[in-house]
Design a protein that fits this description.
By secondary structure, this protein is an all-beta fold. Helix content is 0%, strand content 40%. It has strands at 10-14, 24-27, 30-34, 43-47, 51-55, 66-69, 75-76, 83-88, 98-103. The strands form two sheets. A five-stranded antiparallel sheet has the order 5-9-8-6-7, with no helix packed on it. The chain has a four-stranded antiparallel sheet with strand order 1-4-3-2, with no helix packed on it. The radius of gyration is 14 Å and the shape is globular. The mean pLDDT is 97.
Length: 105
C-alpha cells in the first residue's frame, strides 16, 4: 500500500552552504534548482522537474543525450566523476555557453 504525499516537483531542503536563487544544487543522486536563495542552515525548496538552461563547458551536447553536472556546476556529457543531471532538451554546439536540460529525466 502507498499513500500519496506530494506531486514531487519540489523538494524541501536545508542549505548546507549559501544557495543563490536558481542555483543548481546536488541532493544525493539528483539535482534541483533552488526556488529561493538561502543561508547556511536555512530551509528552502528546490525544483526537481522541468527544463532549465544550465551553463556548460566547451563541448557539443546532442539532443536526447544523458548529461551530467560537474563539481563546478556545468553540464557535460561525461558521466565519470559527475552527478547525473537529466536529458539534453536540444542540441548545443561547443560554442554555446548553456545547455537546455530536462532535469532528473
Amino acid at each position: 500500500m502507498a499513500e500519496f504525499r506530494q506531486a514531487g516537483g519540489k523538494i524541501d531542503i536545508t542549505a548546507t552552504k549559501a544557495i543563490a536563487y536558481h542555483e543548481v544544487v546536488v541532493i544525493g543522486n539528483i539535482i534541483a534548482v533552488a526556488s529561493h536563495s538561502a543561508s547556511i542552515g536555512e530551509k528552502t525548496s528546490a525544483y526537481t522537474e522541468g527544463v532549465y538552461e544550465i551553463k556548460k563547458g566547451n563541448e557539443e551536447i546532442t539532443q536526447g543525450a544523458k548529461v551530467y553536472l560537474t563539481t563546478d556546476g556545468a553540464i557535460t556529457a561525461t558521466a565519470e566523476g559527475n552527478t547525473y543531471a537529466g536529458i539534453a532538451w536540444r542540441n548545443a554546439t561547443a560554442n554555446d555557453v548553456v545547455a537546455d536540460v530536462k532535469i532528473n529525466a
